Amino acid sequence: MRDVLRHHLFWPVAALVALLVANTVARPSFLAVTVRDGHLFGAPIDILRTTAPLLLVALGMTLVIATRGIDLSVGAVVAVSGAVALSHIASSPNPDSPVTVLTAIALALVLCLLLGVWNGFLVSVLGIQPIIATLILMTAGRGVAMLITGGMITTVNSAPFKVLGSGFWLGLPVAAVIAFGVFAVVAFVVRRTALGMLLEATGINPAASRLSGVRSRTLTWTVYTASGLFAGLAGLLISADTMAADANNAGLFIELDAILAVVIGGTALSGGKFNLSGTLVGALVIATLERTVTVLGISPLVTPLFMALVVIAVTLLQSPRMRERLTAARRRQVMAPAEPPSTARPDSTPDSTEVKA
Amino acid sequence: MARTTLTRTVLAAVSAASLFALGACSSDAGTEPAGGGETAAADDGVITLGFSQVGAESGWRAANTKSIQDTLTAENGFDLKFSDAQQKQENQIQAIRSYITQGVDVIAFSPVVETGWDAVLQEAKAAGIPVILTDRAVDSSDETLYESFIGSDFVKEGEMAGEWVAEQYDGEGYKAVELQGTTGAAPAIDRKEGFASAIEGTDIELIDSQTGNFTRAEGKTVMEGFLNAHDDIDLVFAHNDDMGLGAIEAIEAAGLTPGEDIKIVTIDAVKDGMQALADGKINYIVECNPLLGPDLADIAKKVLAGEEVEKRIVVKDEAFDQAAAKEALPTREY
């Protein structure tokens, strides 16, 4: 039991379960999944689909944070990706042809890859602080997207592109299949090879890891490139979801949601050890939280406050210091009845010093 | 303590970013030197008009911008200085200040939010530059700060939508959900109020109402949530077409037929919305006329000529059902 409680995923998973329980209480059929029109249908399936873009962005963010960096530009990259893909499809004479759609996807992904390379270049070669380096693209990127769409919301009708957002494959949403597929591949590559360890080494101490033969610079460059690519893919999923490229609002604040997912998942922003499964749970918690607001019928006026309270609760429960205090308090409660009321609590135990500190 | 330092750095960076964004905007406010002033109109017959637009957040806004840019042309005797505030009040205030220093003849703008305009409008008044509001109103106790407000009556739009719903479906015990606009925005507050008052006394029940922020993406996710939370939704009232279009996606994904299993009523009548109406996916659209350019040109000329103008000019809004949409679609301007 203690091991379960101590497991790094315990609190994020508990939060997810609590949200699902709250939804099920409000709506007993919440977890029901039925087959409709030959595919699975139900709230859990919706949640999987809405998690997809956030999961991709958070995946890149986890790798970047592992190297002690941060990528603020992902939201702008999401907007650029959608703008490029939809503008290409809109300008083509035949928007329903798979060739057009594949070209659009390729164009968008290549451009986002280049944006990632740019971020990586600024951070790893020029040595600019990650926040500043990616801030450049965060502000400039939306301008680029506006330029591409001409300041309008570009909308298209293209059946093959729509599949990315609303299609189903083997009964599951295509968007979820793509995101979870990419996640699985990355998790496998990172954890089954030495790559993950090298990333952590870079994050813990770049200089020491370089001196011991780790190619820190290449690794750093790679994670920013990957982050750009994943954000581009997320941008395609988001724009295919509504078949519209909105340069101003697509992926707005997704960088903050992604950082939140990473933190809920138990990866420290100070770099080093990272936790991909935690990020997955974190992304699911955020998507479920958004759905909970609608299912519980929380007034739009208090929605941000409600979400903030849940997030505060999860992060507090997860913080090691808070947990120590909780265990200390619990232990005292257990000890208290055994002690004579006149004696003060023992003051030399590590628990009580922790409380005083 | 590396973590707290980093958190602080993140905060600093984010605030720096917002400053950056502010500085980056309104650069299109024009580079012409100041001068000209109120006498410009008399000098060369050309009216210099500074316009600060909200942004480019929806198809409606794009049509509104186009109408203004197409009407206030050099041929019509206007020199238009146009700036896009990207939905930020600070940017609009900055743009208006720059118009004041440039000494334009007239300032026109669509306020992003209702409050907080007194100071900058006072400056315009002190400089003797008349101000015209378009599309959205300001909430100020001093009505002399602007000459006229041209725009639709949002309460009326909500009422028109509600009246049609009451007329069509009263007596069938319909359960309706509402997709609200941006929380706190005038159109969201007024349309909600108008709709609620129109369906009062009927057996149509509004079972849920959430904000979809006027965007397609949020309209879709909120509608998905509604479909998860309720079994028996008969009707959706969306405060704009974009959210309605998002709701269509969600309804289709749930295996239902929009326009039949679940009726949809929206406001705006932009092209995509009208197309969906003609295709039978939306049942009724109340127009919110974005073509404010001609009215604005007219009022600007009158104000400069010293004529009395009405404080409130209500733009005529129409409404379309599916048959009317099919007829109107080929000749729609937006």
How would you summarize the topology of this molecule?
The complex is a heterodimer of chains A (357) and B (334).
Chain A: H1 2-6, H2 10-26, E1 34-36, E2 39-41, H3 43-66, H4 74-91, H5 98-125, H6 130-149, E3 154-155, H7 159-166, E4 168-169, E5 172-173, H8 174-192, H9 195-204, H10 206-211, H11 216-242, E6 244-245, H12 254-264, H13 276-295, H14 303-318, H15 320-335, H16 350-356
Antiparallel strand pairs in A: 1-2, 3-6, 4-5
Helix pairs in contact in A: 2-13, 3-8, 3-11, 3-12, 3-13, 4-5, 4-6, 4-11, 5-6, 5-11, 7-11, 12-13, 15-16
Chain B: H1 2-24, H2 40-44, E1 47-53, H3 59-71, E2 78-84, H4 89-102, E3 106-109, H5 118-126, E4 131-134, E5 148-151, H6 154-169, E6 175-180, H7 186-199, E7 205-211, H8 216-229, E8 235-238, H9 241-253, E9 263-268, H10 271-278, E10 284-287, H11 293-304, E11 312-314, E12 319-321, H12 322-328
Parallel strand pairs in B: 1-2, 1-3, 3-4, 4-5, 5-11, 6-7, 6-8, 8-9, 9-10
Antiparallel strand pairs in B: 10-12
Helix pairs in contact in B: 3-11, 6-7, 8-9, 10-12
Count the DSSP helices of chain B.
12
The Cα radius of gyration of chain A reads 23 Å
The helix/strand class of chain B is alpha/beta
CATH class of chain A: Mainly Alpha
Number of DSSP E strands of chain A: 6
CATH superfamily of the largest domain in chain B: Response regulator
What proportion of the residues of chain B form beta strands (DSSP E)?
15-25%
Q: What's the average pLDDT of chain A? A: 87
